[in-house]
Amino acid sequence: MKKSIERIAGDTEGVSYEFPVYRIEGTSPDAPTAYLQAALHSCELPGTVAIHALMKRLRKAEAEGRIRGAMTIVPSANPIGSTQMLFGEMHGRFHFDTRRNFNRGFALLDEPDASPLSGSAKVTTADQELKDRLMQLSMGHDIVLDLHCAYEGVPYIYAHSVLWPAIADCASALRLEAILYSSDPGDGEFEVAAIHPYLKASPEVARLDRRVVATVEFRGMRDVDPELAEADAEGLYRLLVWRGVVSDEAIGPQEPYAGIAAPLENLEMMRSPCSGTVLYHVKPGDRVEKGDLVATIVHSPGEPDGSADIRAPQSGYVLTRHMHRFTRRGGDLMKIIGDRRSATDVVVEE
Ligand SMILES: [Zn+2]
């Protein structure tokens, strides 16, 4: 295992950012390769500690000559976001300077060639340079996982429609509750950009059967503890073994995926019609029927009609909910995977 340091120049003199990259060579040139990164939204830490727990398994496998496919691993992908502390809290989702989401604006390349991203004389900013660097690091790997988390949620993934159902084994390995798939071009999310070069490629180049490209949502922001880190590391390791990146006879055979798989169009983005204190009546993982009371917004406390009821627009499965207990009008409350297409447009804010 080799460690190197990536450096990103800051946008003012005297400032630069660093993050470590770990590389492991594979013993079999034909084996699938893998790229893992965590905490692109730097305040989303379940993936970082899962990778930390995974590394000891990988070091052991490497010492025993069981790493077949090359791997590149970035446990903490966003050193810019990590510095963005405000009143004691890290704000790692948007770049303070440009206000851009760190998981938007990745370059959508038409071929698996990262050279357009480097060496040019273009004027850029630190957050865009970070995005280009991460895309360069991931390019060429068969398995590309971007580890995030929701505010509060079950474990689930986003992936491109072309990969479903071939990546059901990924969902099974990681013990996920749901897969949301879409062919929407999105807004330059890392995972969308990572699969984009292969969408129009010839089958010999695309090799979609051996490709896993996904945004993994490892539950909620506060679900950071030793047991979950070990369980998620075991899930990642299981996937690497099932896909042939690592060999390990102690890992059992592939198991069928029993969770939800739904198109992104089915997602109900529940928003609040008013500001107030939020009382949730359901939690992630709950099944709801159309018309069920899912939240109450107390907008005028003390008044006889001082609250508003929020009801499920259709039957489905509660995927996530916001961790805040105060909302503004229009604020996100929860995501429900409906049994059928949502009547409203989906704007995912992961
Ligand atoms: Zn995220």
TrEMBL record:
Q: What is the lineage of its organism?
A: Bacteria, Pseudomonadati, Pseudomonadota, Alphaproteobacteria, Hyphomicrobiales
Q: Name one GO molecular function term.
A: hydrolase activity, acting on ester bonds
Source organism per entry reads: Sinorhizobium terangae
User: What name has this protein been given in UniProt?
Assistant: Peptidase M14
Respond yes or no to whether keyword Hydrolase is given for this record. Answer: yes
Which residue positions does the secretion signal occupy?
none
**Which cofactors does the annotated protein need, by name?**
Zn(2+)
InterPro entries assigned: AstE_AspA_cat, N-alpha-Ac-DABA_deacetylase
Ranges for domain Succinylglutamate desuccinylase/Aspartoacylase catalytic: 31-240
Keyword Ribonucleoprotein listed? The answer is no
Q: Keywords in alphabetical order, please.
A: Hydrolase, Metal-binding, Zinc
